[in-house]
Amino acid sequence: MLRKAKIDYELTVLVVILTIFGLFILKSAVYSENIEVLFKKQIIWDLVGFSLFILIVFFNFNSLISYFPALYVFSVIMLIGLFFFGERISGAIRWYNFPVGSFQPSEFAKISTIGFLGIILKNKGLKNFILSMIVMVIPAALVILEPDLGTAIVFFIIWFVMIWVGNFNKKYIMGVILILSVMIPLFFFFGLKDYQRARILSFLNPNAYKYNEAYHLIQSIRTVGSGGLSGRGYMRGPSNLYGYLPADHTDFIFAVLAEELGFLGTTSLIILYLLLYFKIYRIFKKTVFEEQKLIISGIFAMIAMHSIQNIGMNLGLLPITGLPLPFFTYGGSSTIFFFLSLGLIHNISVKLQ
């Protein structure tokens, strides 16, 4: 199962730069609320995650993939277990609380679902198409019940990108799109909770909800805009320092970056993400194995969805969903599984060298 391996220095350097940049901004975000202990915890999560990113290179990829069906089943069991043993925070049950910290099984479910879908979708046909849909829907439905609509959408985006890359019959894909065109309006009116519906409506008309649902959105837009070209200076952002910006170390950490480092800082981050996307794409184009291509595409969809959605909601261009910004948002579960996901791509990349 173990093998000799090289290191993909391009991918590794990008990951290291993003990690250090993220810690740099997180330090400022937690300083404003006198919760520096979170910064120290994040350093630990980053070190653990980066270690896994490197260590996974030494394992045989096919051996790793063989475990994904079992990991998928285990992740689904953990999602179900939340409703019996999970900790309720702000009305949602998304975490297990352990002495060493909280664990969010939906992050584990994303990567295990990607791996399992990679195995299923390498074989074409309607049977595998339907099976892949079921595999996606089960964790997505459980996540919706937590409730966490944003993460549930990520599962669908992952699946859709993977079936598209898998070159399945376009009639199957069109059938899904037609069903969704009917289901989405029904789900909006009858499936969403009141606060979820209000969050979407507040995105469309912030001024009508500026004192409640749109408050976070408006504060984020103001904070981002106040940064100007070069920002207010590191650890000198008024919205961040004086508590006007909510969830500054989680959902709205991009706004902290924009306020303190301005347009130049946010552009630097976007360029880093684009370089990461391009690097993943180059690895995707080099590999000849269908299973590997599918898994790379699923991981790419997950990371791109997280980064685009988080930046978009900070700018007021997309509804607020609470998806973490990769390598920036505070959190152990998301951090470790972002590293693990890129570790799988790292594993594929070094085999191509």
Explained architecture:
This protein is mainly α and 353 residues long. The chain has one domain (9-352). It has helices at 9-31, 36-55, 61-65, 68-85, 105-121, 126-144, 149-165, 170-190, 194-204, 215-226, 238-241, 253-286, 290-314, 332-352, and strands at residues 87-89, 92-98, 101-103. Strand 1 and strand 2 form a beta hairpin. Helix 1 (9-31) packs antiparallel against helix 2, helix 7 (149-165) runs antiparallel to helix 13 (290-314) and helix 12 (253-286) runs antiparallel to helix 13. The longest helix has 34 residues, at 253-286. The chain is globular.
Topology overview:
Elements: H1 9-31, H2 36-55, H3 61-65, H4 68-85, E1 87-89, E2 92-98, E3 101-103, H5 105-121, H6 126-144, H7 149-165, H8 170-190, H9 194-204, H10 215-226, H11 238-241, H12 253-286, H13 290-314, H14 332-352
Antiparallel strand pairs: 1-2, 2-3
Helix pairs in contact: 1-2, 1-12, 2-14, 4-5, 4-6, 5-6, 5-7, 5-13, 5-14, 6-7, 7-13, 10-12, 12-13, 13-14
Beta-strand content estimate: under 5%
Give the strand order, joined by hyphens, for the main sheet: 1-2-3
* Total DSSP helices: 14
- Biggest sheet character: 3 strands, antiparallel
Radius of gyration (Å): 20 Å
Q: Pairing-aware structural class of the strands and helices?
A: mainly alpha
Helix percentage? 55-70%
Cα distance spanning the termini: 19 Å
Shape: globular
Total DSSP E strands: 3
Spans of at least 5 consecutive residues with low confidence: none
Oligomeric category: single chain
In sequence order, what are the helices and strands, one letter per element? Answer: HHHHEEEHHHHHHHHHH
Mean pLDDT: 92
Query: How many distinct domains?
Result: 1
